[in-house]
Amino acid sequence: MISKAILTDIPFLNILINSAYRGETSKKGWTTEANILEGSRTNEQELIGIFDDPKNTFLKFTEQNQILGCVLLIQKENKLYLGMLTVSPTLQNSGIGKKLLTAAENHLQTLDLKTIVMTVISLREELIAWYKRHGYVDTGAREAFPVGDIHIPIVTTPLEFMVLEKTIS
Fold it and tell me: Were both Cys, which of 5, 13, 60, 117 would link to 165 (CB 3.0–4.6 Å)?
């Protein structure tokens, strides 16, 4: 079931997101950042800040009262930004990600918007290919990757974000 996440979900979302993006646990899935970054993907303080902004919506996918996936949706002017699409590493490739993308597109339409935009680290070729199979296109735009205490690159290649988008008519 997909529903809107609430503040009490933050500890579970934090664990899920970090386990799917970084570290050894993330390597159990088909896509991970563990080969390019170390450190945490997020923390509870950042998630609290996200929940505090009314332009943000966090959707969660649950089964048997367990959060198995999530996606962050941020209304930015005339577009909806999609971020932190997460599926538990052991359940990746089971259709949960596709269900969350569909829920994001439904949310887009409730806001009377037409375009979803996202950024993906350009080195994550398998993930970019997955998004393209779901109708997202490379806009050609690139954004600098924020390096800091949380996002610690372990590759020598400079990191950048590729901007992908999908327009829903």
Answer: 117
Helix runs in 22-58, H state only? 23-26, 44-52
Q: Which tens digits make up the pLDDT trace of 28-60? A: 999 999 999 988 899 999 999 999 999 999 999
What pLDDT, in 10s, does the model give residues 60-92?
999 999 999 999 999 998 999 999 999 999 999
Q: Specify the pTM.
A: 0.94
Query: CATH fold of 2-167, please?
Result: Aminopeptidase (3.40.630)
**Considering only CA atoms, which of 56, 81, 64 is closest in space to residue 4?**
56
Segments making up each domain of the chain, as ranges: 2-167
Identify which of 29, 2, 136, 42 has the alpha carbon closest to the alpha carbon of residue 80.
136
